[in-house]
């Protein structure tokens, strides 16, 4: 299927975005917050790395701004018990470089702070990916985002955190605690996720 997708960004609301390509064809893609942080404004051109996944009863298309993110998304799903949802939560919670550092250092405690990862899964990640972690270093993701539509930035951040796997009450609390006057949605989400890893 498609490896890279070039088109005009027509909609973005975490975790979904839509890109219109030549001929008016649009693709709906799911993306981690690391991608949303750096997306251009709606109406601007964007180039994305994609991953196509087909199961018995569904088809999904995932989007990433950087090849390193797509690579980590694929690598981490090779670990027993990890699927696309947890892989997206990892990329939404930490940068590729930070994840590689956590794996290399065997920091199971920090890995369990990522939504959907328990102690046993974190231990499997360390064992199964430690050898590959060094390859991921240096190809990481940077942050910085601007989204589009709904209510206020704090509420929008709460919704995005729920999409990442946090329980509604916890997501609302995290967004509230991370909000400072003038913060946009991206800043609130970034601060909330960073705080959750401490």
TrEMBL record:
Pfam families: HHH_5, RuvA_C, RuvA_N. This is Holliday junction branch migration complex subunit RuvA. One of its GO terms (molecular function) is four-way junction DNA binding. NCBIfam families: ruvA. Residues 74-93, 109-128 form the Helix-hairpin-helix DNA-binding motif class domain. It is found in: Cytoplasm. One of its GO terms (biological process) is DNA recombination. Signal peptide: none annotated. Keywords: Cytoplasm, DNA damage, DNA recombination, DNA repair, DNA-binding. The lineage of its organism: Bacteria, Pseudomonadati, Pseudomonadota, Gammaproteobacteria, Lysobacterales. InterPro entries: DNA_helicase_Holl-junc_RuvA_I (IPR013849), Hlx-hairpin-Hlx_DNA-bd_motif (IPR003583), NA-bd_OB-fold (IPR012340), RuvA (IPR000085), RuvA_2-like (IPR010994), RuvA_C (IPR011114), RuvA_C_sf (IPR036267). Residues 153-198 are annotated as: Domain III. The RuvA-RuvB-RuvC complex processes Holliday junction (HJ) DNA during genetic recombination and DNA repair, while the RuvA-RuvB complex plays an important role in the rescue of blocked DNA replication forks via replication fork reversal (RFR). RuvA specifically binds to HJ cruciform DNA, conferring on it an open structure. The RuvB hexamer acts as an ATP-dependent pump, pulling dsDNA into and through the RuvAB complex. HJ branch migration allows RuvC to scan DNA until it finds its consensus sequence, where it cleaves and resolves the cruciform DNA. Homotetramer. Forms an RuvA(8)-RuvB(12)-Holliday junction (HJ) complex. HJ DNA is sandwiched between 2 RuvA tetramers; dsDNA enters through RuvA and exits via RuvB. An RuvB hexamer assembles on each DNA strand where it exits the tetramer. Each RuvB hexamer is contacted by two RuvA subunits (via domain III) on 2 adjacent RuvB subunits; this complex drives branch migration. In the full resolvosome a probable DNA-RuvA(4)-RuvB(12)-RuvC(2) complex forms which resolves the HJ. Residues 66-143 are annotated as: Domain II. Belongs to the RuvA family. Has three domains with a flexible linker between the domains II and III and assumes an 'L' shape. Domain III is highly mobile and contacts RuvB. It comes from the Bacteria. CDD domains: UBA_RuvA_C. The gene is ruvA. GO terms for cellular component: cytoplasm; Holliday junction helicase complex; Holliday junction resolvase complex. SMART domains: HhH1.
């Amino acid at each position: 299927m498609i490896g890279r997708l070039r088109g005009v960004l027509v909609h973005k609301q975490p975790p979904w975005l839509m890109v219109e390509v030549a001929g008016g064809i649009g693709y709906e893609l799911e993306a981690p917050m690391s991608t949303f942080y750096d997306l251009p404004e709606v109406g601007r051109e964007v180039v994305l790395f994609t991953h196509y996944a087909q199961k018995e009863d569904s088809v999904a298309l995932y989007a990433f701004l950087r090849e390193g993110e797509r690579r980590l998304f694929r690598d981490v799903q090779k670990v027993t018990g990890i699927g696309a949802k947890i892989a997206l939560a990892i990329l939404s919670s930490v940068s590729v470089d930070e994840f590689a550092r956590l794996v290399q250092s065997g920091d199971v405690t920090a890995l369990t702070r990522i939504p959907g990862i328990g102690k046993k899964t974190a231990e499997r990640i360390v064992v199964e990916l430690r050898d590959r972690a060094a390859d991921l270093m240096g190809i990481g993701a940077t942050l910085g985002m601007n989204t589009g539509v709904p209510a206020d930035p704090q509420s929008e951040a709460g919704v995005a955190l729920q999409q990442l796997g946090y329980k509604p009450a916890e997501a609302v609390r995290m967004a509230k605690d991370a909000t400072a006057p003038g913060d946009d949605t991206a800043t609130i989400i970034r601060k909330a996720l960073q705080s959750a890893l401490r």
